[in-house]
Amino acid sequence: TSKTMMTGAANYPMRSSVSVIIPAKNAASTIGASLRSLAADRAVIGECLLVDDGSGDGTADTAKVVAEELDLSLTVIDADYGNAGASRNAGMARAGGDFIFFLDADDEVVAGGLTALVECLQSNPDAGVAAGGYVRRIGGQADKVRIPKEYSRNRAANAARYLQNKLRTIQIGSALVRRTAHGKDRFPETLQYEEDVLFWSAFLTVNDVAVTSRLVMIYNVDEARSLDRFTASARTQFLNFSKELGKLKAFGI
Q1: What is the band of 24 on the pLDDT scale with cuts at 50, 70, 90?
Q2: What SS3 state is found at 143?
Q3: Strand 208-221 to strand 127-138: parallel, antiparallel, or no bridges (unpaired)?
C-alpha cells in the first residue's frame, strides 16, 4: 500500500520531461543535500518522486521543506517495501516524464550533470540510456573520475561483459533512462545489494548506451552500511541473488 503527498511547485507546468526517482529510508540527514544538488538543473526537472520506504526519522518532512525552498515539484510516495529495488520500481510506475533519473538519497548531482545527460540522450535518439562520469567519495575524500566509455553497439556483448564486471559500472545517479526504453525491465525486489547490476544487465540486452565525458554525480560511500548489507542474512541474500541471476535467462543472458 502507498499514499502520495505533493509539495513544491505543484501549480507550475511540467518544465521538462525528466522524472527524478529517489528511494529513501531513514535518510533525513542526507536527503537535503541530495535535493539541493539538483537545484542547478531545476530547469530540466519536471518532477521528483521520493519513495519513503518506512522511514522513522522524518525523511519525508525534511524533503518537503527543502523542495519548497528550492521550488522543486516533489511527490512523496509513502510505502513499506524494505529495499531500494522495489522503491525504484514504484517510482517508475508513477513517473510521467519522457526520461527517468535515479538518484539515491545520500548521493549528489554535480551542477549541470543532469542537463548534460539530457543533452546527451537527445543527441543520441537511438540510445536508451545516457551515462556520465562519477566519483566515489569515502570519508569525505573523493577519488578519480570514472567514465563508462567501453560500451559497443553489440548489446549482447555489453550485457555479458557488464555482468562479468568487464565494463565500467553505470552508477545509480550517473545515468538518464528513456522511459520507453526500460519496457518490462524492473529492479529485483528481494535483494539488499547489487540490484542495480542485475537491472542494467537486463537493460543492456535491448538498449544502446550513449556516453558523456562530463562528471555527473558524487557517489557517497558509507562503508559501515555497505558491510551491513552484505553480512545481514548473508545466506538468504546469496540464495536470492542466485535466483535473480537465473531470471536473466529471459533476457538472453
Answers
A1: very high
A2: coil
A3: parallel
C-alpha span between 204 and 157 (Å, rounded): 9
Burial class (CB in 10 A: 0-12, 13-18, 19+), 141: exposed
Give pTM, 2 decimals.
0.90
Q: Is the dihedral of CA 163, 135, 53, 226 positive or negative?
A: positive
Give me the sign of the Cα torsion angle 22, 178, 123, 202.
Answer: positive
Q: Can you tell me which residue has the cell 539538483? A: 38
Terminal C-alpha separation, the chain:
33
- Per-residue pLDDT tens over the stretch 49-89: 999 999 999 999 999 999 999 999 999 999 899 899 999 99
- Report whether pLDDT(8) > 60: no
| Separation of alpha carbons 61 and 86, rounded Å | 22
Distance, C-alpha 197 to centroid of its chain:
12
CA distance readout (Å), 147 to 64, 120, 167, 208, 209: 33, 14, 10, 16, 12
